[in-house]
Amino acid sequence: xxxxxDCVFRRFDHRELGNRSRQYNDFLVSYCERFxxxxxxxxxxxxxxxxxxxxxxILSLVVSVGLMILKFYSYYVTGSxxxxxxxxxxxxxxxxxxFAMYSIYLSSQPKDSNHPYGHGKIEFFSAGIEGILIVLAxxxxxxxxxxxxxxxxxxxxxxxxxxxxxxxGLVNGALGRLLQQKGKALNSITxxxxxxxxxxxxxxxxVLIVGIAVIYFTDLYFLDSVFSLVFAGYxxxxxxxxxxxxxxxLMDEVDPLxxxxxxxxxxxxRKDNWIDIHNMRVQQYGxxxxxxxxxxxxxxxxxxxxxxxxxxxxxxxxxxxPGYVEVFVHADPCIPESCCHYCQINSCPVRKFPKSKKIxxxxxNMAKNQKHYHELSSAVQxxxxx
Length: 386
Fold this sequence. Notes:
By secondary structure, the chain is mainly α. The chain has a three-stranded mixed sheet with strand order 1-2-3. 67% of the residues lie in helices and 8% in strands.
């Protein structure tokens, strides 16, 4: 790649152009190299971007462009407003896939001094942009449907339109399912959002075929606008849900699924020395995660022992969660008067009370900013009152 770019610009004679021309030439060489590297991103080292994500989003973009052309041809042949609405949504698919491509590129860039947590949040922003575009497409569809209802136009060649739209729906459905499956496996909200968008487009295409069939056999042409309005409502709802999830991710809203996975992992590898884990929080940065938690340990542990236990908790999460995982653990000392009741250490040298219960870790008690003895005290108090 570098050799190809160099051969274009080495035609200039640096001695004749002088210092300024040499600097300008070097500037062009440098930026052309970056441009061609971006276009040929699938050849770049995987430390910069996940090749599978990149190839999937390129596939989505290419297919979206092809289906958009096919749908506009279907509208040209039939004159159906309902088919036009489907074609207009395809424009959104193309724009969204293009932005998704850039967001995957940017989210895979390493941390830097200006972005100490990485660039993964761009994936939430990308999903939000895609949702907004879907909502705008739905609003335009409503406008076009009402206009056609007031000023109807004759439809023609409906069977051909049904065939073309049906083919595009099958392709979008298969690709949307693939992107959602791969997005979950690669922990990429961008791929999941793009997949859901294409799956939504596929569903609307199949409903559209039913509508066109009804029009074809009943000659009730006003139904074309009615079906368009129904599609618009469905499209706007799905766009809203994408925006809602995007805003939640950008604002670090609690993700019950992510919390549930972490709780399950920590319960599986739980050690008796880990008296409790509380004040646990997780932040998603695209496919990466940042986790904070407080770990209660026996107060008589020395610093080396504390460090080993903290490191083990970090290892458990890093080895069992997808993507890059960063864990910050704050170590708390136990309080014998309160923690002995649920401490699981059998040979504790400072135990003051016998253990009476093993508290099951769950999303509620691990998220609270308090040791688990508060939960035990509340249960005892409730039992006395009852």
